[in-house]
Each structure stands twice: as structure tokens, then as C-alpha cells.
Write a structure and sequence with these properties.
Length: 202
Amino acid sequence: MKPWILGLTGGIGSGKSAAAKCFSELGVHTVDADHAARWVVEPGRPALLRIAEHFGNHILQSDGQLNRAALREEIFHHPEQRRWLEALLHPLIGEEIIQHLALAESPYAILVSPLLIESGQHQLTQRILVVDTPEHLQVQRTIARDQVSEQQVQAILQAQAQREHRLTKAHDVLLNDRDLGWLESEVRRLHDFYSNLRGDQS
């Protein structure tokens, strides 16, 4: 029986990573889209060679790794360069995600992605779980975690899918407005439900 795929998403500071960790500890195979995005640009991978050819070798560090700060600088000021980069990387990231999801041996597998809906990655999933948090808590948690200003958090919130839009796509919503113990109990409840679902019912 092939595992079905659950998409797990949520805004910055919502606790989606903490929720994903809880699922993982229950034995669910999880694949993080952010990790896949890093894997495709590792040294020796074709994408990194293409990026260096396109932008020049200053985009590489002395050890051959991608210089992320330099790349961010290139695409921040030039939207057409960002589109070029996305056109190169998105299909590769999609392939990487599919390969890693295919290794799942649990009844269902989870694709964790902050941009699940915006990137179209939700098309790889049969069901969507949104970890949702009131905005004031998102801001508080992100400032505490990343040591950034409230303005920076607000800018990221604006760039991510608007909360209402994300919620309209959700099959399930986990309201994460309490402590970690609450989150763990909610994940266990959902895990019991998901473990009994078959792909065609999801």
C-alpha cells in the first residue's frame, strides 16, 4: 500500500517545524522542502554549476559551497534574475521531494513546506494540514527565535500566503496557541486519524 502524502504548512512562527518534529517522533516519514532546496544546490550538483555559470564565480565560497548572501543580493534587486533562478530550481526541488517521499514506509508521509500553496507543491499532496497561530503570537515567537525586529517579521508575513488564503486550502487546521504539550497532544490525535486514512479517502 503506497503511503498517501500530507502537506504541512503554516506561516512564520506558527510552529510548523515543531509539529513536524512531533509527527516524525511518532514514526511518520517527513520531507522538508527547505532541506530539499538546500540539497539541490550542494557542490557537485548540476544546479550549482548552472548558477555559477549564470551569475559568475563570486556566487561560490572558497570551499565551493553556494554563497547564499551573494545570491540573495543578486536576486533581491533583479526580479528577472529571481524568476530565472526559480525556473531552474523549482522543478529540481520537486524531483528531490518526490524521491525522498518515495522512501516512506509509514502509512502516510508528510511534506513540510512554508510555501506549500504558493509554490504549487500542494499538488504533490492528497491532504493539507495548516498549523495556524494568531498573528501576535507569530510575531512574538519569531522575534524571540530569530532575534529580528518586528518590522522584519511583518515583511515576511506580508510575503507569505495570507493567512485567510492558506486556511481556505486546509483540510485540517491545528490551532497552535498554547504550549508544546498541547501541540504534542493535538499531533497525536491527528496522527491516529491519519493512520487510518487511505489515500483515496484523504
